[in-house]
C-alpha cells in the first residue's frame, strides 16, 4: 500500500468501523449476561491449513475481548464426513452454543454443501445454510453472510448512497459475490455480475459507481477498469510479488481515480469477523423470546 495513504480521506477503514460496531455489540453482550445469558460460538477446524488457523485464532481473540464464549473443535484432516456431521449434530443440541461455524475450505473428501446443510438454521451464524440464503433473497429476517453484510455496513457508515447507483460485482462465489449483489439490489442499486468468463471486463467495471471485487487474483483491477469517482470495495486478500498482503485491486494504481476505497489489510477483513460476532449475539438474543 502506498504512502499516499497517510493523507488520504478516501479510505473506508474497516478496522475503525468494526470497532464502532463492536462497542454496541459489547453493550448487547453485557445486557444478555445480566439476564444470565452468555453468547456462545463453536468453531470447527478440520486439518492444518495455516490461513484457516489464523482466521480461527482471530475469531477466538475477538470473542474473548467481548465476553463471548468460544469453543474450538480441532479435527484431523482425515476426519470422515460422517464424524464431522455427528459433531455438528451434537453442537446443534448444546444449549451453551448459539452459533456454529465450520471453517472453510474443508478437505476434498468432505462435501461442503452437506456440512453446511447439517447446521441448525437458527445457529447458522455464517449465513450459508440454504434456508438462510433463501430468506436473504426474499428479504426476510435471517443471518446474513458475514462478508457481504460487513460490506453493507461499511457503505452505510461511509455515507455511500446506494439507491439508483450501478453496482458491479466481480466474482460469483456463494460466500461473497452472489449474496453481495442481492443485498445491494435490496437497497435499490442496479446490479451487474462479472466474472472470469466476462469478455472485456473493463467495459463493464468502468460503468460501476460501486465496484466490489472478490476474485482472489492479486491486483487484477487497474486504473483502466475504474470509473472516475467510483467507490471500490476490495474483498480480496492475496500476497504480492514482494510477499506483502494485497487485494484484488491495484491500490496505488486506482487511488487517484476513486472517491473511496477499502485498503488491504484493514478493510473488509475486520468487518467479516465483526458481523460474525453480531450474528452470534443476535442468535443468543433468541433465548429471550
Number of strands: 10
Average pLDDT confidence is 95
Helix content: 25-40%
Share of residues in strands:
5-15%
Shape: globular
Strand order of the largest sheet: 5-4-6-7-10
Spell the H/E element sequence.
HEHEHEHHHEHEHEEEEHEH
Structural class label: alpha/beta
Task: Determine the N-to-C terminus distance.
Answer: 47 Å
Contiguous uncertain segments of 5+ residues: 1-7
Tally the helices: 10
> How big is the Rg?
19 Å
The major sheet is characterized as: 5 strands, parallel
Detailed description of the structure:
There is one protein chain. By secondary structure, the chain is α/β, with parallel strands linked by helices. Helix content is 40%, strand content 15%. The protein contains 10 helices and 10 strands. Strand 1 (40-46), helix 2 (50-66) and strand 2 form a beta-alpha-beta unit. It starts with 13 loop residues before the first helix and ends with a helix.
